[in-house]
Fold this protein.
Amino acid sequence: MHKGKGMKFVGDSRVQDKSQRNTIPKDYSEYPGRTEAFWPNFLLKEWLVGAVFLIGFLCLVAVAPSPLEQQADPNNSAYIPLPDWYFLFLYELLKFEFASANYVVIGTVGIPGLAFGALLLAPFLDRGPGRRPSQRPIANGMMLMGVIATVWLTYVSVTAVDWEQREQYSIANATEHEVDTEHPGYEAYSNNCMSCHGENMGGNAGMGPSLLESQMNVDAVKDIARNGIGDMPANQFEGSDEELEKLANFIVDNRPSSGGEGEVNGEGSGDGSTEGENSDSES
């Protein structure tokens, strides 16, 4: 027998069986509605749906911009930050005694970890072949409990917020006014008044009103800084008489309604009439 004749190699990976090689894509028409080629059929559909949602989202943002708040002010200690709506349920959870203070780890790690861990284990705990809700009691029950808890905590958190008060922090109500930081009284203002009346004298919600609309003269400002008025207690200013003079001039000179020397040294500083008219704006 000559070499190679009458010999048959079976299962030899070095020999390619060209008769079994399939270079033609499978015809998926044999399985309608059950499967399809990833490229380009499935991927093009995904891109098309994604593009439609993206364009719709961009149009929504252009028509109704996000209600952003003002730039964070470290001097405003009365401001209470509020998370976005999808984190409100966790925010509300931290208000309970068993999930706050010394037990904050339970509210931030323990309870959320158990909840999300249970959802991850749901497919392994309930391995029934049925797809009806009644045939998957464990998985559907855990999901239903999670949805109810999230919706309820979010609702309670939303109803507890004073949304009208928070409107004061919106960008639409932000005061775009620049003060003269080179003014001799700016340092006295930053050390004594900025924490309540804001960096630009526009006020801080819950702390102090705006000084931009005040019509008081220098003497009236000095009197209020020493003796207080309304909710503002006395002796809030800590400094010398010279610094107080610079502070009062700074407030008068940097408000948009400043009328110059006639207003600074105008009448009404001694009889109390000007102070009475502006007591609400300076308190």
Q: What stands out?
A: The longest helix spans residues 38-63. Residues 259-283 have pLDDT under 50 and may be disordered. The chain is about 45% helix and 0% strand. The radius of gyration is 36 Å.
